[in-house]
Amino acid sequence: SQWGEENLQALSIQEGEDVTMNCSYKTYTTVVQWYRQKSGKGPAQLILIRSNEREKRSGRLRATLDTSSQSSSLSITGTLATDTAVYFCAWASSGSWQLIFGSGTQLTVMP
Amino acid sequence: NSKVIQTPRYLVKGQGQKAKMRCIPEKGHPVVFWYQQNKNNEFKFLINFQNQEVLQQIDMTEKRFSAECPSNSPCSLEIQSSEAGDSALYLCASSLEGVSGNTLYFGEGSRLIVV
Fold first, then answer.
1. With contacts defined as CB-CB under 8 Å, which chain A residues touch B100?
2. A26-30, A80-84, B63-67 — which one is most confidently predicted on average?
3. 8 Å CB contact between A74 and A87
4. Contact at 8 Å (CB) between B82 and B19?
5. Contact indicator for A39, A83 with CB cutoff of 8 Å
6. Are B33 and A94 an interchain contact pair (Cβ–Cβ within 8 Å)?
7. Where does the pLDDT of residue A9 fall: very low under 50, low under 70, confident under 90, or very high at 90 and above?
């Protein structure tokens, strides 16, 4: 992606393992969102983290945001086969109406 | 389950044909977005609206693409003369406000195949 990148394009793990996906971006933002897109479906937001939070948890998900390094991560603990999907980080430049998506990480969780 | 409804789910068009897709945003969401997602899962922003007004659009949209969000009717995205490179998943999303701190709710998309 012209605007950002995610460090790993594809991950394949066993059910029960933990996984972390990383995202870096090149434009200033104070909010990063993580979306999951399952096969044949549209993206669905998983978690939204703001710069004043640094870390946010939701169930088995944990997101971090480091605005100084312009990076974010999404961790999933105790993965399930149903977590198999493409995961995207997304952000918007200040004052923009356009949400920019990273290139995505294909996560495959094998039962 | 998605509350943003996109139709049709699939459409197959010949080169040069028109292709039209529709979107009903989630009730009460005034902001609507259209994205193009290619086979590599890359997103390209096309256009967005607040109520019936265009907020932002890319150059590509101004040429062969047209879109509108009339009041009391579905939003639509139309490609006037389809090209092979237009083959993609077209995603519609809606939100309550702008993008910075707000969730976008996506439909399941309309997959266009140009043969």
1. 29-31, 92, 94, 96
2. A80-84
3. yes
4. yes
5. no
6. no
7. confident
